[in-house]
Design goal:
By secondary structure, this protein is of the alpha/beta class. The protein is about 30% helix and about 20% strand.
């Protein structure tokens, strides 16, 4: 028979559980009611941690918490247009993803003809405001990276479904983001615009002043492994020839992954929904084979079998765990040689040290 003590303890925990449950429910209800009510200027001002409490829908948002990416970012004057797809907090056919969209204008919302695509594909849409063509490239890229950081802080976004997209001048920046951050961004969709990190051979009708920018891209072997870009244009787009040149004489010539959609009748404009959905499908259906920093990998995407010499990395194989990883410096007792950590320098080489790690160099004898 239960003692008075055990009954008291059981009653205590039952009351505590009930109290917590009521508190959490009450707090959630209050939060939701407060969060979905915009301020007089029609801006929803919230801490990004509460995004998961919002119902599906469109919001003009100002986050009240500092940028998770840069503590010096002027978050109090930054706004974002957000669309949260239906069932974005539930288990879905597709893991949760996000598309950060950049426009050529300072104010840009959400194109409603894309709504079904974002719902079906379980993609959050976020568009930083006040970073149109008059803003510097650095401001635009910073705003985009910050917007994604806010989303990732509060929601379980799949790393393989972080996409950049844009129209016209915004599409230029979407491409730049991909060339410079391909290990972070899983792909870009550019409509009527794209920059390339080197000059390409131009056709007769291309604008010689367009398409090349002062770039700081990742090395080509890294881009060949991770970058994925979809360009959408059409014969009536005044940048049609430039974009074809970038695709054919840049992306394909350099051995990168890309797709070109040349749509009959398309002007310098947003893509039709069917083409945009096909572009997303290309990115979704072609995930990166390995998890960075692997250049190549085994059956497990984080089990490296080759590394990027261009990034100064070497392959270290843990013989006990039987897994490979890419390291900046080889562990003690190993020598870096031809992007691999080895325990003994091969014939024709001799041991040395570059100030950071032991290495093998060609023998001087």
């Amino acid at each position: 028979m239960p003692t008075n003590f055990s009954l008291t303890v059981a009653l205590f925990f039952s009351l505590l559980s009930l109290s917590l449950s009521r508190h959490m429910t009450s707090t959630s209800q209050i939060d939701i009611e407060a969060l979905i009510a915009p301020s007089p200027d029609l801006v929803t001002k919230i801490d990004s941690s509460y995004l998961s409490l919002l119902p599906s829908g469109q919001y003009l948002v100002q986050f009240t918490d500092p940028s998770p990416l840069n503590p010096y970012f002027d978050y109090q004057n930054a706004q974002y247009y957000i669309y949260l797809p239906v069932n974005f907090t539930r288990i879905n056919k597709y893991p949760l993803g996000v598309i950060g969209f950049l426009s050529h204008t300072n104010e840009w919302g959400f194109w409603n003809v894309y709504k079904d695509i974002f719902d079906e594909r379980n993609l959050i849409y976020i568009s930083p405001q006040n970073v149109g063509n008059m803003a510097s490239d650095l401001q635009r890229k910073t705003a985009w990276m910050t917007s994604i950081a806010y989303i990732r802080k509060s929601l379980p976004v799949n790393a393989e479904r972080i996409y950049a997209s844009g129209l016209s001048g915004g599409a230029r920046i979407a491409c730049q983001l991909c060339w410079e951050n391909a290990t972070y961004i899983a792909g870009a969709i550019s409509m009527s615009g794209c920059d390339y990190p080197r000059k390409v051979t131009l056709s007769a009708n291309s604008d010689p002043s367009y398409g090349f920018y002062d770039a700081y891209p990742l090395p080509n072997d890294v881009l060949a492994t991770y970058a994925k870009v979809v360009i959408i244009t059409g014969p009536n787009d005044f940048l049609h020839d430039n974009l074809n040149d970038i695709y054919n004489n840049g992306i394909l010539e350099d051995g990168l992954t890309g797709w070109l959609y040349d749509i009959d009748g398309m002007n310098h404009e947003m893509s039709d929904p069917l083409t945009y959905e096909q572009a997303i499908k290309q990115l979704d259906d072609n995930p990166r084979k390995c998890i960075y920093p692997c250049k190549d990998c085994g059956l497990r995407r984080n089990d490296c079998t080759a590394c990027f010499a261009s990034l100064g990395m070497s392959l270290y194989v843990d013989t006990e765990k039987k897994t490979g990883s890419c390291v900046e410096f080889c562990p003690e007792g190993y020598y870096a040689y031809n992007a691999v950590c080895i325990d003994e320098c091969p014939e024709g080489t001799e041991a040395s040290n570059d100030g950071y790690q032991d290495i093998c160099i060609e023998s001087t004898a």
